[in-house]
Write a structure and sequence with these properties.
heterodimer; A: 301 residues; alpha/beta; Rossmann fold; eight-stranded mixed beta sheet; 13 helices; disordered N terminus; B: alpha/beta; 15 helices; globular
Chain lengths: 301, 355
């Protein structure tokens, strides 16, 4: 086996990487770091964001996408999309006849069906990612990194295709849902990264999400990324004392306890990302990617 | 409590992960400690906070008394959007048969958990219920942990818009005959193509559930609509005050300003703004004292930089929000999850906000 092959990270062979996590844990920064890392290793990456309040562009140091593809560096493109717009496109595509599709799209029933049908909009997001990696969209990428919406730990997103397939059943939407569900459940094609913090509550929630992923999507996460980990306290710190050292000490002890709790129940790949003082921007992404790469290489079987 | 925290309804808002729930509980303790019967309504407390307040699973949707030796009553409850929705239907359904029809509907089951804004609407609806009952001198509402933290503010308007839209009226036409088959004739308003599309895209089973839901919902329409308008008015009344919680650091300033502007534009009473979990300032002496290795030096530099970052954020926020009290709460080594720690936090917050 040659070095370059041995060196290849598992994440590099995924067509879709979904980065999930609750609000405030740094999910978006982790998504940007993974995209940065994969692009640095030669993959063409599309970073996909669905939150109408854009923030990924700030991490990449580019203008906001506003629904258009933005070039965000070598082999990285950024796109902010509205799931609703994708769904409207699908309807237009299925209907072919312009007048009819306009009437459907303008009808209040369609409106409330789209807003109310469980999982439909979430599924469209994954569906679009799938089209991109299969070369069926108007932009191409080797891998799509999706910054999942924060609600429900991203689980509602990943469980959406199965839900839609169940509720709608036959017909083009049902068929599409089943296809996306198979893709998302396949660890060889889709990687799920859970972002957490080394704190009691976020760890409990992460463990719950891991269980729920198994139950509702039929797969484990590929990676748990624990963000903003307080550095280990050097021995001579106790002699120095002071408020900052005390804070450091107690927070590190809490982080150790939380990480123990995580490792007791989750035996899969885990990376620890350092607490950083960098502002929310490209420097932070570079620092996170640099911390991520050696750990990912170590986690390889 | 006096000043802005003296309002009978406090709504604690902000992005996820900034400590809203803890601050809501702390304000509750301080409110009861200063002699006001208080209810704290939370969404998603950590297990330890639940233990501290004594709100186990039994508290789901029902208020339980928090065991304190405070001069006034403190109750806490977990919000259960589904139970609130069920109660609303019970209230406005003409009879139990009509209510049962909705409860049994498959679409309602999914709708109650997934329709955008339902969770948020149910939070304000519950606030209204409690305010209406008048058992408490003060109610403190912790808001749902959504990214779009202000969704609930517009939830009543959306509910009204939804009820007023043609969707309901059209949907109320009897689409299906007694045997559950689509009555094609009733869909003339959209033409044959629409029916065929619905069938092809969605399948008739879901459509049937939706139509049945709207039919069952029809008699409840007026009650729901006026209720949503009342809830909307309450949020903008003088009785309600919004406590906006922000994370520390300069990168949060834009977010916080966005929320502050939205609340003000919507006619809500904003303030105080609480910048939570601010890193302490690392004194120069502390950074330079004693022998140290690279790791110690690096760690202290990290904490010093975080302290500086947080103070810069605080200063720019204060400059950008003139006239609104901006209180800084320190990052505590351990999250406050005992009643005494929460009470101390509440007292500290009230002191920081006091004019």
């Amino acid at each position: 086996m040659d070095a370059s092959h041995r060196d290849r990270l598992a994440l590099e062979s995924r067509a879709l990487v979904v980065v999930t996590g609750k609000g405030g844990v740094g999910k978006t920064a982790v998504a940007a770091a993974i995209a940065h890392l994969l692009a640095g290793r030669g993959r063409r990456v599309l970073l996909l964001e669905a939150d109408p309040r854009e923030s990924l562009h700030r991490l990449l140091g580019v203008p906001p996408s506003g629904g258009d593809l933005v070039d965000a560096g070598p082999r990285i493109a950024l796109l902010n999309i509205s799931p609703r717009a994708i769904l409207d496109d699908v309807v237009r595509d299925k209907l072919k006849i312009g007048a009819l599709s306009r009437r459907v799209l303008a009808s209040p029933i369609y409106e409330h069906f789209v807003e109310g049908a469980p999982g439909l909009k979430e599924m469209m997001l994954l569906g679009h990612a799938l089209l991109v990696t299969e070369g069926e969209a108007d932009h191409e990428a080797d891998v799509v990194v999706l910054d999942a919406p924060a609600s429900g730990h991203g689980l509602s997103l990943l469980a959406a295709p199965l839900l839609v397939a169940e509720v709608i059943g036959a017909g083009p939407l049902g068929t599409m849902a089943a296809r996306i569900a198979r893709h998302v459940a396949d660890p060889a094609r889709c990687g799920v990264v859970l972002t957490a913090l080394a704190e009691e509550m976020p760890v409990i929630e992460t463990l719950e999400t891991i269980d729920a992923l198994g139950e509702r999507v039929g797969r484990p996460p590929e990676l748990v990324a624990v963000n903003a980990v307080v550095p280990p306290l050097p021995r001579q710190a106790a002699r120095v004392g002071g408020e900052a050292v005390h804070l450091w000490q107690v927070r590190r002890a809490a982080a150790d306890a939380a990480l123990d709790q995580l490792r007791r129940r989750w035996k899969g790949p885990t990376v620890l990302l350092p607490l950083l003082a960098q502002a929310f921007g490209p420097e932070m992404v570079t620092a996170l990617a640099a911390a991520l790469e050696p750990q990912l290489a170590r986690e390889e079987p | 409590m006096k000043g802005p925290l003296g309002a009978p309804l406090l709504v604690v808002v902000g992005s996820g992960g900034v400590g809203k729930t803890t601050l809501a509980a702390a304000l509750g303790l301080h409110s009861a400690a200063t002699g006001t019967d208080t209810l704290v309504m939370t969404f998603d407390p950590s297990r330890r906070l639940k233990d501290a307040l004594g709100v186990g699973e039994r508290a789901a949707d029902r208020a339980v008394a928090v065991e304190t030796d405070l001069p006034a009553r403190l109750d806490a409850s977990l919000l259960d959007p589904r139970a609130t929705f069920d109660r609303l239907i019970e209230r406005y359904a003409p009879g139990s048969a009509e209510a049962d029809r909705i409860y049994r509907n498959r679409f309602y089951h999914q709708l109650a958990g997934t329709l955008a804004g339902i969770l948020e609407y149910m939070a304000v609806e519950r606030l209204f219920e409690v305010a209406d009952e008048g058992h408490y001198g003060r109610v403190i509402l912790d808001t749902p942990p959504t990214r779009q933290a202000l969704d609930f503010l517009h939830a009543p308007q959306r509910m009204v818009a939804f009820l007023d839209s043609g969707a309901l009226k059209v949907a109320l036409r009897p689409w299906f005959d007694d045997r559950g088959r689509l009555r094609a004739g009733k869909l003339k308003v959209f033409g044959k193509g629409f029916e065929a599309l619905l069938d092809r895209l969605i399948g008739l089973a879901l459509l049937r559930d939706i139509a049945e839901f709207f039919q069952a919902f029809g008699p409840l329409y007026e009650g729901f609509r006026s209720r949503a308008l009342d809830v909307q008015a309450l949020l903008r009344s003088e009785r309600t005050r919004f406590v906006l919680v922000s994370g520390p650091g300069e990168e949060r300033v834009a977010d916080t300003l966005f929320f502050a502007r939205k609340l003000t534009e919507d006619g809500c009473r904003l303030g105080p703004v609480v910048v939570n979990q601010v890193h302490p300032e690392v004194a120069r002496g502390e950074r330079e004292r004693g022998e140290r290795t690279g790791a110690l030096e690096e760690g202290l530099r990290l904490f010093a930089a975080l302290g500086e970052r947080d103070r810069n954020g605080l200063a720019s926020l204060r400059g950008l929000l003139p006239g609104i009290p901006v209180a800084a709460m320190p990052l505590l080594p351990e999250p406050p999850t005992t009643l005494p720690a929460l009470r101390a936090l509440g007292t500290r917050l009230a002191a920081a906000v006091a004019p």
